[in-house]
Structures are given as C-alpha cells and as structure tokens.
Amino acid sequence: MSRKCEKKGISNSDLAELSGLTRTVVSGIINGSLQSVSLERLIRLAMAVDLVVDLNIRKAA
C-alpha cells in the first residue's frame, strides 16, 4: 500500500481523508505500530488507493 500511495503521490494525510480514518490510525497501519487493525480499516485503506481486496477463508490444515 505504501508503494501505491508513493506512486500516486498520496500522503498519509490524503489517505486519511480518502479513507475516512484519522491520520494517526493511517500512520499506525502504514508503519506497523498499530497493535490491532480491523479488516474494515484495511479494506477502507485499500479502496482509497484503488486496490482490490480479495479475501479467502479456508479450513486450517
């Protein structure tokens, strides 16, 4: 996601505005300092930079 933002010239502030999340949350997700990230937040960030989210759920081995 960081590379996609860089390529499109999107800052963390821009990403926050596009996704509806706070700058603090976006920065925490991008730099890995946020302990827990919901699937909803990840989807919102991905959609904000035109990434497709593909979720596969399968039985554990």
Question: What is the multimeric organization of the chains shown?
Answer: single chain
State the CATH class. Mainly Alpha
> Which residue ranges are poorly predicted, with pLDDT under 50 across at least 5 consecutive positions?
none
The largest sheet is: none
SSE sequence, one letter per element? HHHH
**Rg:** 12 Å
Structural class: mainly alpha
For the secondary structure, the number of strands is 0
Average residue-wise pLDDT: 92
Helix content: 55-70%
How far apart the termini lie comes to: 29 Å
Write structural notes for this entry:
The protein is mainly α and 61 residues long. It has a single domain (2-48), classed as lambda repressor-like DNA-binding domains (434 Repressor (Amino-terminal Domain), Orthogonal Bundle), CATH 1.10.260. It is built from 4 helices and no strands. Helix 2 packs across helix 3 (23-31) and helix 2 packs across helix 4 (39-48). The longest helix has 10 residues, at 39-48. It is globular. It starts with a helix and ends in a 13-residue tail after the last helix.
